[in-house]
Amino acid sequence: MLAAALATLALAGVTTARPAASVCADGVTTVNNPQCCFWANVRDRFINEIFLGVCQENVHSLVRIAFHDAIGFSLTDPSKGGGADGSIIMFGDTELNFHANEGIDFITAFLQPFADTVGVTYGDAIQFGAAVGLSLCPGAPTIPAFVGRPNATMAAPDLTVPEPFDDPDKIFARMADAGFTPVELIHLLASHSIADQAGVDPEPQVLGAPFDSTPFSFDSQVFLEVLFEGILFPGSGPNPGELMSPLPGEFRLQSDKRFSLHNETACAWQENALSQSAMASNFQTAFTKLSLLGHDQNSLLDCSELIAQAPPATASQGFFPAGKTMEDLEIGCDAEAFPTTLVTQAGQPTMIPPVDVQDIAFGN
Ligand code: HEM
Ligand SMILES: *[C@@H]1O[C@H](CO)[C@@H](O)[C@H](O)[C@H]1NC(C)=O
Ligand SMILES: *[C@@H]1O[C@H](CO)[C@@H](O)[C@H](O)[C@H]1NC(C)=O
């Protein structure tokens, strides 16, 4: 049967440059690097037991913790932490009390026992988990999956994670200390395309209020919607770090709005608003760098072959939510004209529903 199939391929002139795949011990999974068999099982367990197969709250939380763990790092000051090392879990008694880490305890409660059970370090559980999780989000790029991070040896100190009420220049300085330019920060903020809040405004009606109208799709909509003039507070606002949002149910971070208007970042913001493909590839580069902070890539095992390509985003081009027009935009980028070709959704403006909390299928 196999021989016949191969003969057919040979007759058809099909050749392949790939190395022969190895079959893992389960008899089903095939990999090019046999060392990745173990990680194929971790991947499948992440998808089935933590993410339940969808780009919802648990994927969103994994991507947030991936940032908060990794950014405990400085190019010049080793006391700022070991980067993407899992210290936020290993030293959770310290780091989870920092104000900026409000709400991170929720995913940690799943992730810590999961990592202990499957036998991976917290640094790998966080970064590998984020790469696997993003593969479930329509529109997301594939994130290379490097593994083999050692255990963290110290907690990161307080104030390495930016707050939404911080001035842009203060945030740029913190990111520069960790090796990121203001434009690279904008590229990382594509993550806010799959994001919502619970702690900036703790009122129940904005528990899970998303930052854009499409929180289950890794699309450019967040960059576009932040450009609209704010007209309402969806909950009890104003709260520190919050500005008025353009749509009922939607939540706006002060930092996001200010980046969209800042002369160092407004054009990078607009570029992402106008191009789904640029946004995805910009994020791929910046997030890969983030996931490797504190590590030498050459000392890690590359299991990127395990990460599936996410499905395409529902809309390949940003759209104006119903009721919004060019008149509602606040443009910060002088260098590039804003095109007049974006289409407004038909119908009446609607309330943006919150993102629900998700259970897990692990340890029950
Ligand atoms: C300027 C820097 C940033 C600030 C001030 C900021 C601030 C925030 C805040 C306040 C929330 C809401 C948290 C809550 O109330 O539950 C949030 C959510 C989130 N952030 Fe950021 N963030 C920043 C950068 C980033 C970066 C670089 C990433 C990842 C690469 C990221 C990923 C996320 C994700 C995925 C969520 C949603 C979490 C969820 O829905 O559970 N953020 N961010
Ligand atoms: C990380 O620490 C745990 C104990 O907390 C230990 O079981 C595990 O072997 C360590 N992993 C590595 C790679 O050092
Ligand atoms: C932004 O404006 C400040 C002064 O307000 C200036 O020093 C800086 O060079 C400007 N940056 C860019 C990229 O134009």
Automatic annotation (TrEMBL):
Enzyme Commission code: 1.11.1.-
Binding residues for Ca(2+) 1: D69, G83, D85, S87
Keywords, alphabetical: Calcium, Disulfide bond, Glycoprotein, Heme, Iron, Metal-binding, Oxidoreductase, Peroxidase, Signal
Active-site residues, as the UniProt record annotates them: H68 (proton acceptor)
Domain of life: Eukaryota
Signal sequence range: 1-17
EC class (word): oxidoreductase
Domain called Plant heme peroxidase family profile: residue spans: 59-273
InterPro entries listed in its UniProt record: Ccp1-like, Haem_peroxidase, Haem_peroxidase_sf, Ligninase, Ligninase_C, Peroxidases_AS, Peroxidases_heam-ligand_BS
Annotated residues for binding of heme b: H192
Protein name: Peroxidase
Taxonomy of the source species: Eukaryota, Fungi, Dikarya, Basidiomycota, Agaricomycotina
